[in-house]
Amino acid sequence: MRGSNAATGLLVALAIAACDRGPSVPSSTAPPALGARDAGMSPAPAAKRQPFVVAIVVDQLSAWVAQSRWPELPNGGGFARLRREGTWVKTMRYPYAVTDTAPGHASLHTGKLPAESGIFGNEVPAPNGQRVSILRDEAAKAIAWDGLRSVPGSSPARLRVDTVADRLRVASPKALVVSVSVKDRGAILPAGRHPTHVLWFDSSLDSFVTSTAFANAFPSWAQGIGDTKSIVLARSKPWELTDAAWVEAHAAGPDNQPGEGDLEGLGVTFPHVAKTAAAFRALPAGDEAIVKLGLAAIAAEYDPSRPTLLLLSMSASDVIGHVFGPDSWEAWDHLRKLDATLATLLEALDARIGAPVTVLLSADHGNISMPEISPERAGVKCSGDPFERPCTTGSRLGPNALRDELIAATRTVLGKGHWVAGLADPYVFLTPEARALPADRRALLDKTIRAALAKHAGIADVLDTRTLATRCPEVLVHARGVPDRARLGEDVLTLVCRSWSADAGDYYVLSRLGSFFDGELVIGKGTSHGTPYPYDRTVSMLVRAPGLIEGGAVLEDPFDFSVFAALEAAFVGLDARAPRDILEAHRAPKVE
Ligand SMILES: [Zn+2]
Q1: Rounded to the nearest whole angstrom, what is the distance from the C-alpha of residue 319 to the centroid of ligand 1?
Q2: How far is the CA of 94 from the centre of ligand 1 (A)?
Q3: How far is CA 200 from the centre of its chain?
Q4: 310, 508, 574, 575: most buried, per Cβ within 10 A?
Q5: Cβ contacts of 524 within 8 Å, gap of 6 or more
Q6: 383 — pLDDT class (breaks 50, 70, 90)
Q7: How many whole angstroms from 352 Cα to the centroid of ligand 1?
Q8: In this structure, are residues 367 and 60 in contact, taking their beta carbons and an 8 Å threshold?
């Protein structure tokens, strides 16, 4: 019952958000969809209605989780509704190695590989060796609810290709493009360079923010939802289980299992109380804030004569995976709450637009169970697992500890100097001094780095990116194209070449099957992703487009990730091909 109370609370908030938006259209001209009155949103007139598309990314929702858990969710939830009313592509693959949030979001919304988009990873080393967002831009400043702040903002400066939203704004300059996420990369990379509004949560400011790269003010409709006071209020409510018996039956383990982390006092058992802005990111309330912000933007600015693209990236699932792992009570309860939040979103949007809106939903990358979880418990088939999850457990690689080891080892061998700039997984970055070393000293540096990395059982191989620069052009000429690259069986070099660009690091570090670089939200705890293995590269996709895409269909063949951007483009009017033909062009007949 708590879940339905939460959903009701969200609807009430939407009703309040929509209350000041003028008189409602009489129901005789456009009958409200289910729940329209509850949502308090009036249907807009149907005449001359331009496309309305909502594209949703659920961060770290792997195909193995989607395939096994979506069928367990209630019929009234958002996932069941999208499955009934849309088509479920069960297997969508990223044909590249660096399966992280920034490359994933850029790839989904551009249709391009990281090697083309320039988004080669999540982070880069700052001058002090700490990792910072790949989108951090010293030339931009953050704009929070209370105005311009003197902290660096984020921008799409590194993005080399257009997003679908960018193309839409060129084709239709008055198009409404709104993008919201808890992460800068989850909001900016779907939006591109010229969104109408883009907002993400900055935990250092405890507020949703935009930046001077996009705007000169915080949008007024985000006040009362994305400001510090509202966030503090949202996180003051304990995170409690929606249905304890359902979670206990499905999670098949205790609430407090080995490997779970305590994120800034959030604790490892229910109920969870977030004491800090960073802990807020792990709460289902974070997803609710994203949806509330998206709906407030639509309530304030939707106009049926403008094409509309609403881009929402739900980040809580990723933070929960990094802290508690995907087999935890927290992961199961979060999915149940996300399901209810999505149902509320669909109901409210359909009511506002006066017809079922077009929906795309997928994930930026997959994941694997924590090393502490037995393969039986995680549902791994020891031979023939379709996601190639191993039967033996892996280990966590600590990027900061590894960086310090490499700095120390290179100083011991090469003498005092600054040789290793940092480690932003999966890349080790050298300093300009190290890159300029004479050949014999560079060979010594190379040997030292390889020897230090080889001591770690979780590392399978190290590729020198000078080799990638030489070999990748040839490798990519002969690599599989769309749609065949969606099938398994390609070598790691091909997958790395599709990820790498010249400004990425100097060494690509390959994790062993089952091992991963620790996300370090809580050091030594939780799970992560970022590897070239099929469990990290495989996600699912749901597409609802009544009249254009079949309802209730399930497609088993693997699809290339670029289908997402192609459909997004078609739905907003940028591609005249029929969506069914676009699906077909990205489908790789299953031969694996
Ligand atoms: Zn992550």
Answers
A1: 7
A2: 15
A3: 13
A4: 508
A5: 261, 396, 398, 518
A6: confident
A7: 33
A8: yes
| 442-486 residue pLDDT tens | 999 999 999 999 999 999 999 999 999 999 999 999 999 999 999
DSSP reduced 3-state for 62: strand
Q: What is the pTM of this model?
A: 0.92
Question: Residue 265 Cα, ligand 1 centroid: separation in angstroms?
Answer: 20
Q: How far apart are the CA of 463 and the centre of ligand 1, in A? A: 23
| CA 460 to centroid of ligand 1, rounded, Å | 21
Query: Distance, CA 55 to ligand 1 centroid (Å)?
Result: 19
Distance 351 CA to ligand 1 centre (A): 33
Cα gap 511→214, rounded to integer Å:
37
Using one digit for the tens of pLDDT, what is the confidence trace for 526-573? Answer: 999 999 999 999 999 999 999 999 999 999 999 999 999 999 999 999
Q: In this structure, what are the phi and psi dihedrals at residue 437, rounded to the nearest 5 degrees?
A: -65, 145
Ligand 1 center from residue 432 Cα (angstroms): 29
Per-chain mean pLDDT for the chain: 92
Q: Judge whether 283 and 239 are in contact, CB under 8 Å.
A: yes
528 alpha carbon to ligand 1 midpoint, in Å?
A: 6
Reading the block at residue 277, the tokens are 């802005």
Please tell me the distance between residue 100's alpha carbon and the centre of ligand 1 in angstroms: 6
Tokens for 252, please give them: 């098949």
Q: Measuring CA to CA, which residue among 236, 243, 245 is closest to residue 275?
A: 236
Q: How far is the CA of 521 from the centre of ligand 1 (A)?
A: 10
Rounded to the nearest angstrom, the distance between the alpha carbon of 110 and the centre of ligand 1 is: 20
Using the mean position of ligand 1's atoms as its centre, give its distance from the Cα of residue 520 in Å.
Answer: 10
Burial (CB count <10 Å: 0-12, 13-18, 19+), residue 74: middle
Report residue 300 as tokens. Answer: 């304030």
Alpha-carbon distance of 514 to 395, in angstroms, equals 7
Q: Are strands 507-511 and 427-430 parallel, antiparallel or unpaired?
A: antiparallel
User: What distance in angstroms lies between residue 427's CA and the mean position of ligand 1's atoms?
Assistant: 16
pLDDT in tens, 185-218: 999 999 999 999 999 999 999 999 999 999 999 9
260-294 in b/e burial notation, b at 16+ Cβ within 10 A?
A: bbebbebbbebebebeebbbbbbbbbbbbbbbbbb
Residue 167 C-alpha to ligand 1 middle, in angstroms?
28
The three state secondary structure string of 456-490 is CCCEEEEEEHHHHHHHHHHHHHHCCCCCHHHCCCC
CA distance 27 to 433: 70
Closest of 392, 508, 390, 499 to residue 453, by C-alpha = 508
What is the distance in A from the centroid of ligand 1 to the CA of 465?
24
pLDDT score of 519 more than 80: yes
d(CA 189, CA 22): 33
- Cβ atoms < 10 Å from Cβ of 161: 16
For residue 309, report the distance from its CA to the centre of ligand 1, in Å. Answer: 25
